Amino acid sequence: MTSTPLNSLWLDFSNLQYPGLLWQVGVLIFCLAAGWGMSLALTRLFAQQDVKIGVLGLKAERFSRVLSPVLALVFLVLAKPLLALWYHVNLLRVAIPLVTSFVLIRLAFYVLRRIFARGGKVGSVLLLFEKLFATLVWLGVAIYITGLWPDLVDYLEEFVIPVGRKKISLLVVSQAAVSVIVTVILALWLGASLEERIMQLDTVHSSMRAVMARVGRALLILIAVLVSLSLVGIDLTVLSVFGGALGVGIGLGLQKIASSYVSGFVILLERSLAVGDMVTVDKYYGKVTQIKTRYIILQGLDGVDSVVPNDMLVSSPIQNHSLTNKTLRLATHITVSYQTDIEKVLQLLEQVVASVQRVSHNPAPLAMLSKFGADGFELEIGFWIEDPENGRMNVISEVNRAMWKTLQIHNVSIPYPQREVRIIGEQSV
C-alpha cells in the first residue's frame, strides 16, 4: 500500500511509546505558542503607532489574525528538518499542510475584506465566497493528506476539452483559472493600497488623485491578467482578436457607456468638478458627493441623491457654484403700502437682514425698489451666503421672519389685494 502522510501518522500513533511522537507534539505546541506570542507582541508594539508595513499598507494590528499562523508555519518549517535528523516527523508532515491551509484562509479573508469591505460592512456575497473558498481549501488539504492528490492531478490531465483544432486538459484550465483569480486579487489589493496612498497626497488636486488611482488600478489588473495567462502558457496574440471584437462592441452597443467613461476622465483631468462642489446640471442641483468613472452623485438639499451620467456633464452646460467662489446671492420680495416712508423701510430691511446669522456682510445686503405695483411698493432684498451646501430655503425663511417682525414693530402696512363683490338681484317684470 502506498505510504501517505495519514498512514504514516497512524503508524506512529499505534506505538505511543515512540519518543519521536512526544518530541513532535512538543515542537508543534511550541511553534503554535511562539507564533501566537510573537504576533501578540508585534500587535501591541505597533497598536498605538498605527504603523503600515510596505507598499501594501499592512497594518500590524489588523494583520495580527494572519500573522499568528504565518509565524507558526515558519517555525514548523524550520523545525521539521532539524527534528528529522533524529526521528520520523510524520506528525509535522500532517500539521504543516493544516497550518498552511489556515494561513491561506486567513490571508484570503484579510485581502478580500480589504478590497471589497473597506468600509467595514461585509456583504452576503463576500461571506458566501469566503465559505466556499474555505471549503475548497480544506477539501484540498484532505485530498493531499489521504494521498489522493496525485490521482486527482492525473485525472485532470487526462480529461481533455476540445477547443477548435486544439485540445486543452482540464488541469491547464484549472491552473489558468487559479492563476488569473490569484493575480487579479493581488492586483486589486495592491490597487486599493495604492489608491489610499494617492488620495492622501495633499499637494495634488483631488481630481488628479482620482485619475491617478483609477488608471493605476486598471493598469495593475491588466498586467495581472496578462502575466497570469502567460504563466500557464496561453498565447497572448489571441487577445488581439478579442481586442478587435471589443472595439466593435464599444463602437456599436456600448457607445453611451464608453462615452460616459471617457467623459469621466475628461472631467477629472480638467478639474471642472470636485467633491463638495455645489452644481446645477439641467434640473438637478446639489452637492457632489462622489465622482465615479461613469457618473457622479449629487446630493440635493432635500437629501435625495441623483446619479448623473458623465456624458451629460460634458454635453450640457453646468453651473458650478463653488468653482471659484462659494458665495451665493439670494433674494426675497415684499410689498409695502404707498403711505410708507420708503427710504426708512429700505434701511430697516438692510439692517435686519444683515443680523441673520448665515447672511454675509461682505458684500452687505441691499434692499431696492424694484417697481410700483398695483397694491404698493414692490421691494427686492438681495443678500449673500457663503455656505450654500447648508440649504437656501431655510435661510430665506429666516430672513422673511426677521423682516416680518421688524415691519410689525414699526407699524409698516403690507397691502393685499381687495375686491368688491356686488350682487345684483333680478328685477321683477
In short:
By secondary structure, the protein is of the alpha+beta class. Helix content is 56%, strand content 14%. A hairpin with a 2-residue loop joins strand 5 (278-281) and strand 6.
Give the biggest sheet: 5 strands, antiparallel
Strand order of the largest sheet: 8-7-6-5-9
Radius of gyration, Cα only, in angstroms? Answer: 36 Å
What does the average pLDDT come to? Answer: 77
From the spread of the alpha carbons, the general shape counts as elongated
The percentage of residues in β strands lies in 5-15%
Give the class from helix and strand content and strand pairing. Answer: alpha+beta
Number of strands: 12
Terminal CA distance = 131 Å
Spans with pLDDT under 50 lasting ≥5 residues?
53-57
Number of helices, counting only DSSP H or I runs of 4 residues or more: 13
Order of helices and strands: HHEEHHHHEEHHHHEEEEHEEHEEH
Helix content: 55-70%
Describe the structure.
With about 425 residues, this protein is an alpha+beta fold. Among the domains are: about 1-145, no CATH class; about 330-410, Alpha-Beta Plaits (2-Layer Sandwich), CATH 3.30.70. The chain has 13 helices and 12 strands. The chain has helices at about 5-15, 20-45, 65-85, 90-115, 125-145, 150-160, 170-200, 205-230, 240-250, 255-270, 310-315, 340-355, 395-410; strands at about 50-55, 60, 160-165, 165-170, 280, 285-290, 295-300, 305-310, 320, 330-335, 365-370, 375-385. The strands form 4 sheets. The protein has a 5-stranded antiparallel beta sheet with strand order 8-7-6-5-9. A 3-stranded antiparallel beta sheet has the order 10-12-11, with helices on one face. α4 crosses α7 (about 170-200). Mean pLDDT is about 75; it is low at about 55.
